[in-house]
């Protein structure tokens, strides 16, 4: 192997190691709160209860479970499921109250924008100027293409049109 292929293999190896190691170095992966863990647990319990109810109904339809056992077990699972759903609802309210409201962030952004506007006129960005030039060029191009109007229906036509797009009449 020559030096170039060794360097190429080494650079590919470093690149792969970087992409594999990046998630391990991210700080966001450990930002799961206790509310999120509790919510995940409650959702798993809800799915488990739903699966049990589904299997219970299936077994009853097949005649594997007597009716008195079926009604008692189904009632117990329904009560457990309702408790889980109530706990999920309470948890959702807690999660909603613990997170910052979007409207607060919007209000802060508006206040910052007003404060910067009060400090002086805003200088247009170069990207804004370029966008304005592109819009003006597009409008000029569109106006140059119009060839008039159809003599039959009044539909606007372009210079390249041979027939009206609305009524189909020949354009002179």
Helix-strand blueprint:
Elements: H1 3-25, H2 34-62, H3 67-98, H4 102-118, H5 126-145, E1 146-149, E2 156-158
Antiparallel strand pairs: 1-2
Provide structural commentary.
This protein is mainly α. The chain contains 5 helices and 2 strands, in the order H-H-H-H-H-E-E. The model has no long low-confidence stretch (mean pLDDT 83).
Number of helices: 5
Secondary structure class reads: mainly alpha
Query: What's the N-to-C terminus distance?
Result: 75 Å
The counted number of beta strands is 2
- What general outline do the C-alpha atoms trace? extended
Strand content: under 5%
Question: Nutshell version of this structure?
Answer:
The protein is mainly alpha-helical and 172 residues long. It has helices spanning 3-25, 34-62, 67-98, 102-118, 126-145; strands spanning 146-149, 156-158.
Task: Give structural attributes.
mainly alpha; 5 helices; 2 strands; 70% helix
């Amino acid at each position: 192997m020559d030096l170039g292929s060794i360097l190429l293999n080494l650079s590919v190896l470093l690149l792969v190691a970087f992409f594999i190691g990046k998630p391990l170095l991210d700080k966001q992966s450990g930002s799961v709160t206790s509310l999120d863990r509790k919510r995940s647990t409650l959702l798993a319990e809800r799915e488990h209860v739903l699966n049990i109810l589904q299997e219970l109904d299936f077994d009853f339809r097949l005649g594997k479970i007597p009716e008195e056992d079926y009604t008692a077990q189904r009632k117990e699972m329904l009560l457990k499921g309702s408790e889980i759903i109530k706990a999920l609802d309470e948890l959702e309210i807690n999660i909603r109250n613990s997170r910052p409201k979007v409207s607060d962030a919007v209000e802060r952004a508006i206040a910052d924008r007003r404060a910067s506007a009060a400090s002086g006129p805003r200088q247009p960005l170069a990207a804004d100027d370029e966008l304005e030039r592109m819009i003006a060029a597009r409008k000029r191009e569109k106006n140059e293409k119009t060839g008039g109007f159809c003599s039959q229906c009044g539909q606007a036509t372009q210079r390249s049109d041979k027939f009206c797009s609305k009524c189909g009449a020949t354009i002179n």
